[in-house]
Write a structure and sequence with these properties.
By secondary structure, the protein is of the alpha/beta class. It has eleven helices and 13 strands. It has two domains: 3-181 and 223-245, Rossmann fold (3-Layer(aba) Sandwich), CATH 3.40.50.720; 183-219 and 249-323, UDP-galactose 4-epimerase, domain 1, CATH 3.90.25. The strands form four sheets. Strands 3-2-1-4-5-6-11 form a seven-stranded parallel β-sheet, sandwiched between helices. A two-stranded parallel ribbon has the order 7-10. Strand 2 (27-32), helix 2 and strand 3 (55-58) form a beta-alpha-beta unit. The longest helix has 22 residues, at 95-116. The chain is globular. The N and C termini lie far apart (39 Å). Bound molecules: NADP nicotinamide-adenine-dinucleotide phosphate and guanosine-5'-diphosphate. The site of guanosine-5'-diphosphate has 17 residues, from helix 7.
């Protein structure tokens, strides 16, 4: 039985990746940081019905000694580093913390792996935000980076550390440059889930408006369930490498909002208000990924369209709100 260690197991991707690896017969250990809200951390794993199948260990990406001990004890074949301060807007309010967790945290776990499990395979959750002010219309593995937020700068550090440990120490370390991916388990602060939950609230007459930021921004949105499979595929190859994971289609926030409202038969113009509070100090106007390498080398392709995903998310939020 193969063993996987996942940091960020309580997040969106951690939950779907756990489900996927369990279905492949893996023994899954997840790192959870201590919180006073005992029991709440595993909500997403519970939603997928797998909370009792994942072995949870206490740990934090900032606590290097703890990571060394976790890797020594769990002896993983594969390590998926998904933990991060992952919300772009918060990274301007907490730039130092974001740099430490999302940037230096990657070095902490790479070092722990080098010391305790140098033969293991490592996945780093890199981000399309690294392209920021885009230098090519369609972004691929060779497109130059131009980060636009403390989050993106920190992710760039994690990306290059992953590449550097591969080149310096011959570690099997891969950087997955994933474009935005969403699901019913997405955090409520991210734009898709904020919209689908608000649409559900409005449809159920629990709310009367949706306050939004930049409606012109465009993103390449895919489904998290598809994207965690790509993470695993990267670690099954003969050689470690870096891959863009995207759909190859970009859609504006406005069009995504329209899909969500149309699903419940409502007119967005009656409910959406633009609120400058949700604008960012520096915006990433458009992202569009080129997944050609992933298709060629991994045989990976996205299965779920943006429209299908948004409808699934609205339905899940309607169901959650009805059962409250
Ligand atoms: P998420 O839902 O925000 O999950 C982040 C996870 O990191 C949570 O489990 C969180 O734990 C954990 N975490 C935060 N700080 C930590 C620390 N100091 N020590 C240990 N764990 C810590 O994010 P996601 O959407 O699943 O994304 C997974 C990864 O992919 C992240 O690194 C994200 O930046 C990256 N990424 C995401 C996307 C996307 O569109 N979703 C795109 C590209 C890259 P708590 O539950 O305790 O907060
Ligand atoms: P990001 O691409 O990782 O920053 O993911 P988000 O889902 O947080 O934001 C995607 C895009 O939606 C960004 O360009 C935001 O500026 C834009 N956006 C517009 N209104 C909102 C909003 O109310 N909340 C969030 N989170 N983003 C918004």
């Amino acid at each position: 039985m193969k063993k996987a260690l996942i940091t960020g197991v309580t997040g969106q991707d951690g939950a779907y990746l756990s489900q996927f690896l369990l279905s492949k017969g893996y023994e899954v250990t997840g790192v959870v940081r201590r919180s006073s809200h005992y029991g709440l951390a595993t909500q997403r794993l519970e939603w997928l019905g797998i909370a009792d199948k994942v072995k949870l260990v206490d740990g934090d990406l900032l606590d290097q000694g703890g990571l060394v001990r976790i890797i020594r004890d769990s002896k993983p074949d594969e390590i998926y580093n998904l933990a991060a301060q992952s919300f772009v807007k918060t990274s301007w309010d907490q730039p130092v913390l974001t740099s430490q967790v999302t940037g230096v945290g990657v070095v902490n776990i790479l070092e722990a792996m080098r010391q305790e499990a140098a033969g293991a395979r490592f996945y780093q959750a890199s981000s399309s935000e690294m392209y920021g002010l885009i230098q090519e219309e369609m972004q691929s593995e060779t497109t130059p980076f131009y980060p636009r937020s403390p989050y993106a700068v920190a992710k760039l550090m994690g990306h290059w550390m992953t590449v550097n440990y591969r080149e310096s120490f011959n570690l099997f370390s891969c950087s997955g440059i994933l474009f935005n991916h969403e699901s019913p388990l997405r955090g409520l602060e991210f734009v898709t889930r904020k919209v689908t939950d608000a649409v559900a609230a409005i449809a159920l007459k629990q709310s009367t408006e949706l306050r939004m930021g930049n409606m012109d921004a465009k993103r390449d949105w895919g489904h998290a369930r598809d994207y965690v499979e790509a993470m695993w595929l990267m670690l099954q190859q003969d050689k470690a490498d870096d891959y863009v994971i995207a759909t190859g289609r970009t859609v504006s926030v406005r069009d995504m909002v329209n899909v969500a409202f149309a699903h419940v038969g409502l007119d967005p113009d009656q409910y959406v208000k633009v609120d400058p509070a949700f604008f960012r100090p520096a915006e990433v106007d458009v992202l569009l990924g080129n997944p050609a390498k992933a298709k060629r080398a991994l045989g990976w392709e996205p299965k779920v369209s943006m429209e299908e995903m948004v409808r699934e998310m609205v339905d899940a939020d309607l169901q959650r709100r009805r059962s409250r």
